[in-house]
Amino acid sequence: MTTNTIFLLLLSLVIAGGLSYFQYYFKAKSKSKMTLFLALLRFLAIFGLFVLLINPVLTKNALEVTKTPLALVVDNSSSITALKSEKKVEELYKLLASNPALQEKFEIQSYQFDTDLKISDKFDFKGKQTNLDQVARNLKSINKNSVYPTVIITDGNQTTGNDYVYRFDPANKVYPLVVGDTTTFFDLKINQLNVNKYAFHKNKFPVEVFLQYSGGKSVTADFSIAQGNSVLVKEKVSFSASKKTATLNLLLPADKVGLQIFKASISSNLKEKNNYNNVKNFAVEIIDQKSTIAIVSAINHPDIAALKRSIESNAQRKVILVKPNEINQLQEASILILYQPTAVFKPIFDNTKLAGTNTLIITGTNTDFNFLNQQQNSLVFKMSGQREDYLSEFQSQFNLFAVDNIGFENFPPLQNLFGTITTNGNVSVLLSSKIRNVSTNAPLLAFAENQGKRTAFLLGENSWKWRLQSHIDQQSFSKYDIFTDKIIQFLASATTKKSLVVTHESFYNSGEAIIINAQYFNKNYEFDEKARLTITVTNVETKQAKNYDLLKGNNSFSANLDGLQAGKYNFTIKELNSNTSYSSHFEILDFDIEKQFVNPDVSKLEQLALQTNGKAFFQDQADDLIKTLIENKEYKSIEKNISTKTPIIDWVWLLILIAALLTTEWFVRKYNGLL
Question: Which regions span the lipid bilayer (predicted)?
């Protein structure tokens, strides 16, 4: 308690005693045996009231020590097992985590990582991918505004994610502890193989192969690509101490329609430590047709180039650019994209009405909306001459086809003329518009179907900024291009509606996410959220079957089939209420990327240490690492004085006591005739 509080309590004692004395002794005309008792009751009641007003508090000071975090991150991927370093990794972790000096100086945080970062002090080394980029991102969010060291026990061989060297916070030192045998072994490796998923029948498709050599001698290797028992390509490749890599650009014939499996391999007469990375299987789906999409525009705009690149990211699509007066070039086009149509598009609209061609209409500040009102009746435009920016809002109830929200709310606004846009008839809205976060309830991206003809509307220009923003957010154009492809697929599809629509790949690599999506529609072709979908997956060779339930998402059902072994599989999806079913097949290619390595990536880990002003250590230098961490004076514990204040009295009970004292005093005085 403070001095002032003590003074007030003493003063309260004096005042309470004075008032009691004045009431029962000084002022009283007569005194009885009960006077002292009544004076005591009055004294305690008045003193209690003063204590209640003063509310004395006890202050307790405690010293709290906050230690610097030490992130101890362990590689839990299967490449550690492939390099036969799992026991060494566990020994190094225990050595660091149990060191008394480190425990005294740091708050040790234990993590494991493969595809993601997790809090753990147990490791099984079964991770199918290695993503150090994810480690960097997660640690930044976990230890915000802290200066802390990070120790990573790893081989440094990353198989997915961005280059991790520049992803860690340069203000926080990283100390890689390199595990694995750094001795250079003779090794031939197919480092990377690039090929499109699709090729066209009777054409030739390119294959780009990157080969890598480890060793000090000159050697000649045989590289080949085979399909079944037939060798399609065979080449000699030379390596030496000064020539460690080679790149081959090959053309393979697309003679058969359907999914074709190929095997690339490299070999020599010398024995290797790791033969697993000498072989890489890949697959290409040979298709016998290619859809042509025509973009018709009277003006030049960045949207057109962005649309062309996005659509042609699917090898089954070909885009041609056409002026409105070049109507003869539209004969081969199965879909028309009409960019900012005006009156000069009149022959194009007349032709599409006769041919029933599906169209995507994109409007903007150069669009003639009066003309557009005359040519279609799905949307009604009442526009002014003023320009306006429209943000997008994703409509999760959209059910024409499965589409994910790829961050539309974060995309830059599209520009269009200001006005009102209303729907007329059977129109489904995927994106609605907002003006400065105020919803307009007007469509921004909508789809209409009328007498078998499908039309899509994108109501604004500058969608090229959407594709660029998606790349910034995802470090890839992939998600945006898939979104564009789904729009084109909707327009390219036959108008006959199916109650069960399934989306899947024809082949997957081992370790990849294997996800199959499905949509079930009721008799009104509305997405049925109450559908019960199951999938039966059967291995073609072993005949072993597994059953899974499909889980409901926003506007589709999905099954995650991760964990299946390499091989060919047939599957059937069934809707249990209606017995509607869909059957198809896929293949999982035997490819374990974590078994591709014979040495740790020392140079990459040393770059990481240099970038963060840390230092890389090898597995036999753990004691040196501990010494470095202990002697580093940057990391100091922070002492804080924690002051806690606790009230001495409980005001509720004190109030009850005061009331009891005053009540007792009243009854005693009443009983003795003193009132």
Answer: 6-24, 36-58, 651-668
